[in-house]
Amino acid sequence: MKDAREFCGLFGVWGDPDAAMHTYQGLYALQHRGQESAGMCVSDRRTLRRYAATGLVTEVFKPGVLAELSAPAAIGHVRYSTTGSCHDVNAQPLLIQYSRGQVAVAHNGNLVNAALLRHEYEDHGAIFQTTSDTEVILHLLAHPRHLARPDPLAHVLTHLQGAYCLLLLYPDRIEAVRDPFGLRPLVIGRLPSGAYCAASETCALDLIEAEFVREVQPGEIVTLSDAGISGRYFASLEQTRRAYCIFEQVYFADPSSNVFGQNVHLFRVATGRRLADEAPADADLVIPVPNAARCAALGYSERSGHPLGRGFTTNHYAGRSFIMPTQANRDLVVRMKLNVIRESVRGKRLVVVEDSVVRGTTTRGKIGALRRAGATEIHLRVASPPIRHPCYFGIDFPDPNELVAKDRGVKEIAEFLEVDSLAYLSLEGMLECAKHAGGSYCTACFSGEYPISVDRPVSKFMLERYQLPMFP
User: Fold this and answer.
1) Which tens digits make up the pLDDT trace of 114-124?
2) β strands within 142-199, DSSP E
C-alpha cells in the first residue's frame, strides 16, 4: 500500500532524569507513524518548555537542542497531518498558558466535530493560532464552563467525537487519554529507573528497554506523576464500544509491536496464510511489495508451498511514499525507493503480495516495472479487502472518488492494474486472523460501517480559510 497516509505517534516519560533523551528515542522508534514534523515539550515540575519543527526526528532534535530540553518529564510527537497543513505552526505538542497555568498536548487521531466546535468558539471571540483540530481541545480545556467542573479534562473529553489518543503535559503530571472506542493504540511502560512512560506502540518501549505494563483502556485517563500511576474513566461502560482500527495491524504499526493485544507480524503472517487458502495461484515465486507486505508474503509462501523471493530492492533513504503531498511526488518516491531485481523475476510466474491497495496508481507502476523486467505472469494478491470508503478517524485516505475500488469490481480493478489475476482477502478472513474477532474492530474503510456517525463532510483542510503553504 503506497497511497494512504499516516497519522501520528506519541511518546512521553515522567520522572526520569533522561526523559528528553528517552522521548527522542521513543519518537525515533515511531518515525514510521509520521514524517512531516517532530516536537517535544518538557517539564522541570514548575514550567514547561517546547521545541518543534517540520522534519524528521533526527533533523529536528540536534544534540544541542536535546541538551537544552533536559528535564525529568517530557512528551513528544511525530506528525503526519490528517487535519491542517504541513507547517511549523501545526507541529506538536501544542503549548499554551491559560488561567490554570501551562499545559501542552500531543494528539493522534482525528476529531470529526472539530470544525463545529471551532466555529462555535470563534463566534464567541476565540482566536486560533493553528489549523489543526488539536487546538480545539485546548480551547475547551481553558473555557470557564469546563474549568468549573471537578474534573475539567474528563468533562472536556465528553465533548469530543472521533478518534483520539492524547498526551497532556502539566508541570506536575502527564495525562494519557484514549477515546471510548479505542480506535488508536496507546500503551504504558516502565523504565528500569522505575519511571513510567506512554507510547503509541510497544516498539518504542522496546527501544528504550522499558517493560510493557498495560494498555490505556478505551475511555480512560491514566495519570503519570511523582505519586506513580493511576487511572480513571471519563466514559461509562455503556458509552464505550471497542472499535480498534484494523488498519493499524494491516499496514501502519511496526511488525515488532503488539497492537490491541496481538503481535502485528504474526497477524500479517496469518492474513497471508488465509489469503493463500482463499486465492491460490500457480506460480514460480512469491514476492512482496515491501515493506509492509513482507509478513503477509511469508504467510502466503508458507501455505502455498511456492518459494518466497525478492523482486525489489529497497532504498531506505527515500522515505515512505504516502507522506508526499501530491501523486507526482508519491510516484517519484516509489521509483526512487523500489527497484526491480531483473534477474530474479525474468521468465517467472509471480504472485505479488500487497498489504492493501488505495488509489492503485503506484501499484500499477510497480506491476509495469515487473512486466518490463520480463515477468511472464503476475498474480496480485492483497492481504486485506478492497478499500471502498473514506476514513474519518485519522487515516488520510484520498477523496472517495479516487479510491480504485469505489466503483469497480475485482475484474475491473485487475484490468486497471494490468495484472493476470487479482484477489483480495475477505473481510471475514481478515477478522478471523485478528485476536478480537467479531465486532471489536473498525472496518469502515472496507465495509462502510462507521462506529461513529459523521453528519458533515470531513476533510484535511476543513479548518483552513486560507491555505497555509505546504512547507514554511
Assistant:
1) 999 999 999 99
2) 162-170, 173-178, 187-190, 196-199
- Identify the pLDDT of residue 335: 66
Which one of the listed residues 8, 391, 433, 442 is annotated catalytic? 8
Helix (H) or strand (E) holding 356: none
CA distance 464 to 352: 41
**Domain parsing of the chain, residue ranges:** 8-243, 258-442
Which run of H or E residues covers position 330? Answer: helix 327-337
Give the C-alpha separation, 137 to 117, whole Å.
9
* CB contact at 8 A, 5 and 22: no
Calculate ∠ Cα 442-447-451, nearest 5°.
35
3-state secondary structure of 278: helix
What backbone phi and psi angles, to 5 degrees, belong to 386?
-65, 135
Q: What is the pLDDT of residues 31-71, one digit of tens each?
A: 999 999 999 999 999 999 999 999 999 999 999 999 999 99
Instruction: Let me know if 203 is a catalytic residue.
Output: no
258-442: CATH, from 3.40.190.80, 3.40.50.300, 3.30.230.10, 3.40.50.2020: 3.40.50.2020
Q: What is the pTM of this model?
A: 0.90
Say how far apart CA 275 and CA 301 lie, in whole Å: 10
Fold designation for 8-243:
Glutamine Phosphoribosylpyrophosphate, subunit 1, domain 1 (3.60.20)
Which has the minimum average pLDDT: 25-29, 193-197, 251-255, 333-337?
Answer: 333-337
Cell triple for 132: 489543526
